[in-house]
Design brief:
about 425 residues; TIM Barrel; 8-stranded parallel sheet; 4-stranded antiparallel sheet; 12 helices; elongated; binds alpha-D-glucopyranose
């Protein structure tokens, strides 16, 4: 390992163990309630959109409620949009008046956020959109070198403030590097500046250089080559507050996503879109609450169980693994008997995670769990802890797929 790789490895340690974080999309767009891209998609004129700054009236420190919910949900870090593509800055920046101190709340919302997150014991991430629909050079920078220089200066200045004014920041979460490339943004220089201010910070891959971790968006796809990764997902199909979008995932889906990231050593950054006043729409409380209760009981099968396991698909569930222990997460309950095919390793014991032993029989090709209740003990997923006498492996129908196709099986059910 080079010194740089070693340092990355060290900095990533907490992140790889954290597994689960909260993403918060909150800004002027929350007042519109039709997706954070409303300004762009509806071509809202700038003069009209800007007025939203003056009507932005958050409750007193909503970040405390988000941080509390994150902790209850079993999340270990939280990332907030400090500036989305709309260009409005949620902090007391000296570089533009279009900010939450000068217009609207009259408060530094980033300061409130960082403090609330820290108090709740969460790691802190700041999302920053490079793309900017408000700054006059935001678009011109692609065609006009003078505009690019000014805009890059502005961008570097804003990022410098975020990395200077709020103590230790754990993650810098860039987004939307459109319309420039790494050279245009001068990303190498930008991130070197960030690291000089925040030596332990993790930087995502969206300044057009790979940096510390990959960010698959709205899908769960492990990174190649052992790189750290984090899938960011919405609960409905929008990031910002969009009550007209009622296509919410339920807790069953969230638990399944957690299992999918865990079994490939990744993280899940699950989004909330607070209401304009910062309050949390009830649907998030409901779903996150269920997930949190499930994790309290079954966390061992998610947080630490990230060893890759050779496995194939089953209609009844799937595995995570830690060493010689396989955790079978049964999310479609079969009734009194559960059969898992193709487990090649000898099983020593089976129990409900954190509960009593389960009677079982093992033949060459089948593990049969017996005497189960007719109804699922946990509808989100009942976890069986299966101790094996070696690394558990499950292999079925080897002729049906190519060696690197194992992910496919996730999507079939
Ligand atoms: C996309 C969207 C943006 C959202 C981001 C989160 O880039 O443009 O609105 O903030 O995804 O990853």
């Amino acid at each position: 390992m080079t010194a740089e790789e070693q340092d990355r490895h060290r900095r990533l340690e907490w992140f790889r163990a954290a597994r689960f974080g909260m993403f918060v999309h909150w800004g002027l767009y929350s007042q519109i309630g039709r997706h954070e891209w409303a300004m762009n998609r509806e071509r809202i004129p700038l003069e009209e959109y800007e007025k939203l700054a003056d009507t932005f009236r958050p409750l007193r420190c909503p970040a405390r409620m988000w941080a509390e919910l994150a902790v209850e949900t079993g999340m270990r870090y939280i990332v907030m949009t400090t500036k989305h593509h709309e260009g409005y800055c949620l902090w007391d920046t000296k570089l533009t008046d279009y900010n939450s101190m000068k217009r609207g709340p009259g408060r530094d919302l980033v300061a409130e956020f960082v403090e609330a997150a820290r108090q709740a014991g969460l790691r802190v991430g700041l999302y920053y959109s490079l793309n900017d629909w408000h700054h006059p050079d935001g678009r011109e920078c692609l065609y006009d070198e003078g505009a690019r220089k000014r805009f890059v200066e502005y961008t570097h200045g804003l990022v410098r403030e975020l990395c200077s004014n709020y103590g230790k920041i754990d993650i810098l979460w860039y987004d939307c590097p459109y319309p420039l490339g790494a050279e245009g943004w001068e990303s190498e220089r930008l991130n070197a500046m960030v690291r000089s201010l925040q030596p332990d910070i993790l930087i995502n891959n969206r300044s057009r250089i790979p940096e510390d971790f990959e960010t698959p968006e709205q899908h769960i796809t492990p990174a190649k080559g052992g790189r750290a990764w984090e899938s960011c997902m919405t609960l409905n199909d929008s990031w910002g507050y969009t009550p007209i979008d009622r296509n919410y995932k339920n807790a069953w889906h969230v638990v399944r996503m957690l299992r999918q990231v865990a079994s490939h050593g990744g993280n899940l950054l699950l989004n909330i879109g607070p209401a304009p006043d910062g309050s949390i729409p009830p649907v998030y409380r409901e779903v996150f609450g269920q997930v949190g209760r499930w994790l309290q009981k079954n966390g061992a099968a998610i947080y630490d169980a990230s060893d890759p396991m050779v496995q194939d698909w089953q209609a009844t569930g799937d595995f995570t693994r830690k060493g010689n222990t396989a955790y079978f997460h049964c999310n479609r309950w079969p009734g009194s008997t559960l059969v898992i095919g193709g487990l090649e390793t000898r099983v020593i014991s089976v129990r409900y995670l954190g509960g009593p032993a389960v009677e079982f029989e093992q033949t060459a090709e089948r593990l049969i769990l017996k005497g189960l209740p007719m109804e699922a003990p946990d509808h989100l997923a009942t976890v069986f802890e299966i101790q094996c006498d070696g690394e558990p492996r499950q292999r079925l129908s080897p002729l049906m797929r190519a060696p690197d196709e194992d992910l496919e099986s996730w999507y079939k059910h």
